[in-house]
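From the pipeline queue, job 12 of 40. The input is one protein chain; the requested action is below.

Action: predict structure.
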Amino acid sequence: MLRNGFYWRNREMRQHVRVVDGEVAPTIVLENATYLNAYTKQWVESNIWMYEDRIVYVGEQMPDNLHDTEVVDCTGKYIVSGYIEPHAHPFQLYNPEQLALHAAKTGTTTLINDNLLWLFMLNKKKAFSILEEFSKHPVSMYWWARFDPQTELQGEHGLFQTEDVLSWVKHPAVVQGGELTSWPDLLAGDDILLYWIQETKNQRKPVEGHFPGASERTLTKMKLLGVNADHESISGEEILRRLRLGYHVGLRYSSIRPDLPNLIEEMLAAGLTSFENLTFTTDGATPAFYETGLINQCIDIAIKKGIPIEEAYLMGSFYAAKHLRMEEQLGSIAPGRFAHINILTEKDNPHPESVLSKGKWIVKHGEQQKMQAQIPWSKYHIKPLDLDWEISYKELQFSVPIGLEMVNDVIMTPYPIEVDITVEELPAETTDSFLILLDRHGKWRVNTTLRGFTNELGAIASSYSVSGDFVFIGKRKSDLLLAGKRVKELGGGIVIVHHGEILLEIPLQLGGMMYAGEMDELIKQEKELKQILQSFGYPFSDPVYSIFFLSSTHLPYVRITPQGIMDVKQKELLFPATMC
């Protein structure tokens, strides 16, 4: 067995047996608990014993030894396993620790996380060290191994070397490979990518795809090449297509794709009665979407839409654990599992009254317990950016004839620029804005326009983007300069400026990407950001994702990337980046 915080040591397991034998007292006992048994799908009345972070007994007996044991009477309550988010992007302005603490308050006590952030921010040694820090956290934090960066980087191949990718795949905190956004390269014959997939499978870890709108033929080919799962279904028909081909299917409910209610309606209307290969995901929603929780929201929707209550809870816990081959540690109330437990007031109410995560109270009888942040960010030099450059009028030179037009929050199409882009300020009667992607080290830039983001706003500047570079959008060059100056002074963040006045600042002092404070405060700030942008003509629902995904080459049709403006479908660089 592994000995690094992800499994119990032999001496710990012997101690757990001594608890059952009465030689050692359990730390917590839930008495008269009616719990959902994941294996029989029945509600069973039992007593649940815990020793520190592990469930050690579930049955009719009470311990003989109750020395210093906390006994909680659960008469009239209903007990389910802590919920599992199998597809988290834990850096959408928030940082992974604060997301985990916030999620646990509403019952999501395990997160399976994107590792992309660590690839950009840390070398491998430091990244694996911070994973060790997270293994000691009350919330179970696991990770997946990326095979691609979601954008066209300068020097991408240095970031994704076979030795490094396989080191991630083999790490005990990493439980799956993916998500595979570069699947067109795989179909085109990329054997290095295929090798990484097969090595992941050799570790008995699943591989998750990213196949929006994929045909039956494409899904079949990807199955033959080793992919296990996909979370991109946008209809009941697409769910059934994936299930019939043997995929595990994630049902999404996120800030840019709140599809879950319609997905459930359509798959039930199609006659689906088997749910074992379905789970939920919020797919890295932006902060305000999480105000009332993560997977608890999904389970609530599922129950109200007609999925059997027992199945809804298992979709939010046990089925995710089984898919990840972690059912011996997570997803059920049974001996040997982590003590992730939600106490409910009603069977059909998935919003817990009390939450235990690794045997620690997160919420107790409706009262949130004080949880101290414990990740030492400064130890890993994740701190405010120290920038030795400043944006000037030199960087505000525009000559490219093609701009990006917004179709929705994240989809961009090319359009011919017809307005004069040499001026100080673009006219308010158009929705054209200046758009700049600027290297965080100040070495290169890409200048074009963005249509459809605003009809009036002076400027928004952001150090938060999928590539970690700086994004500038706005109608007025003087406001762009002021916003850039203030982002530099903050050491990273998002700044909105209009007519020389700073309207909002969100400091992102963890590497220019993440907020250092608590989620509740960040939620307030994100709501204000959205309100301001909508007042200046932003027509969509999720401006944070609009900014973040400007460089994402897994989305159609044209993107602004560190290499330049790119036609994603043709994999063609239309206009290269300019050196500063």
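Job complete. The two ends are 52 Å apart (CA to CA).
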